[in-house]
Specification:
single chain; 269 residues; alpha/beta; 2-enoyl-CoA Hydratase, Chain A, domain 1; 6-stranded mixed β-sheet; 3-stranded mixed β-sheet
Length: 269
Amino acid sequence: MNEALVQVEQVGPVRRLWLNRERARNAQSRQLLDELDAAFEAARIDEATRVLILAARGAHFSAGHDLKQAQAERADFTVEERWDFESRRYFDYCMRIWDFPKPTIAQVQGACVAAGFMLANMCDLVIAADNAVFSDPVTHTMGAAATEVLIHPWVMGLRQAKCFLFAGEKLSAAEAQAMGMVNRVAPLAELDSVTLALAHRIAEAPPFALRLVKRSLNRGADMQGMRQALAAHFDTHQLSHVTEEYESTRRAGLASAIQKAVDRDPKQA
């Protein structure tokens, strides 16, 4: 049998989900995303689980979408087929993480790129190793309108998000913490234990009270228009897939375009 692409670890009231495509830098294939969505649902209905950690095996949290699979399987999708695929696996799956009723923590090390950035920032909290590097080179390198869920301004501020996306720059863990996107930075060797300790601390709170306060906090963001803005951007993102700029990048190879952006900065291992 094939090894699970999402591994489950239960430590008392804390469940940790591990992205398990280490050799692919945890690139998000269709299979990984489907397994991850199912794993979140299993954690949601498990009454013994009070806090969920999203982590990743290996040196890197996630290199983003599996663009090699996208080119091989979806290069000739119609607009309708692409919209259907991405609305389900990218937008809906991400929003289910955002709406997950229990506290969630992203545990990030190494590269956290594009859809990896999107995935981590759907969680309530982010704990980063001191070697973590956040980037989203999609607009700058591929000619697409960022990732499918434009969570960026909601977690890092509007002006920072503009610079981050316009210039295709990278952020260190310390820089991400300074702008409020990352809650805590830990030495790489201590990332697992620091994240688990915080999760257990949160799990000591009454679970229904946690659920209610998370609901109120998320509703506050919704009242500011977050959900409507994310939905509107998703449609704009789809438009960017049919531009000549994007098509020229696709012909040259989507995966190679992203790899060039990653390799451009020696900080990104």
